[in-house]
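Protein of interest.
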Amino acid sequence: MSNPLPGLPLIETPLLLAMADELGLSEEDRRVARDLYEQGYAVFDFPDQQLDERIERIKARLAPHYGIDFADPEADKTCGERRIQDAWQTDPDVRAIAANEAVTALLGKLYGRQAFPFQTLNFPVGTQQDAHSDMVHFSSLPEKFMCGVWLAMEDIHPDAGPLFYYPGSHRWPVMSNALIGRRGYETQLASAQDPYGEAWRALCAAQGAQPQTFLARKGQALIWCANLLHGGSAQNDPRLTRWSQVTHYYFEDCIYYTPAFSDEALGKLQMRRISSIADGRLRPNLYQGQPAEEALKSASHDPAGSAGKPSGFGSKARRALRRTLGR
């Protein structure tokens, strides 16, 4: 069967399992797909035979940059830097994990578009970060073509601030500036997710939602959907480490932007310039396979919309995209 909803990730619709045979999904792929659809996350063993060696090299190379005394088992491991962003630019093992072909191929099958990694975060300890959805940081048009993969680089102790998440929260309303009654375009924020905290807490209380923690063993990974509410638990023992790597993925043929600093209804988007970690090439902002600027230009010269005839890109959409591109 062909996909009648190409503008929605397959794992966000019941159509995925109906298309499983056509997509060539293995039993394990189907299990991951079902977990993502029902819970918003899925756990799997990271497919890299050299993973243990890569992890040890990453720890050795990145450790000096955190300002933490890792040699002393009694030292406070939470007193230094908590993360290094985009270490893939200088560390070949970080890059290899992010660009793992088996993972990107699986994500491509589950989402219905080719996946590519665009950002890495490497942590020696837990983030102790409040519950949040990545969609206020990274989003796309069409919506939800983004996901994260978190990799445990050691066995995670319950007192080391393990990752937590709210199962099923990926189906809650997508947080936006319009939803909470603020303007986002060209604003300044200390943290892009701060304005939405009250709304997320209210949703959790109204749903009676309880977080679950991921006590992963070394080499386990977790995929989470773009709208899944997740964060880092409090670290009860500051002597412990919680080495991990996060890779964020986008998907081909989308417009990429930051919702926290955008007003979609006004056509004001803070668009992103995104490159793939796998090959270093820029991934342009596309609208149905066409560069956004070209789509705007061709739509502006389409007489069908002004003549009242059917048009795939109406006048309101043209005006919104023109504002977005500053024209």
Observations:
- The two ends are 40 Å apart (CA to CA).
- Residues 305-314 have pLDDT under 50 and may be disordered.
- The chain has eleven helices and 15 strands.
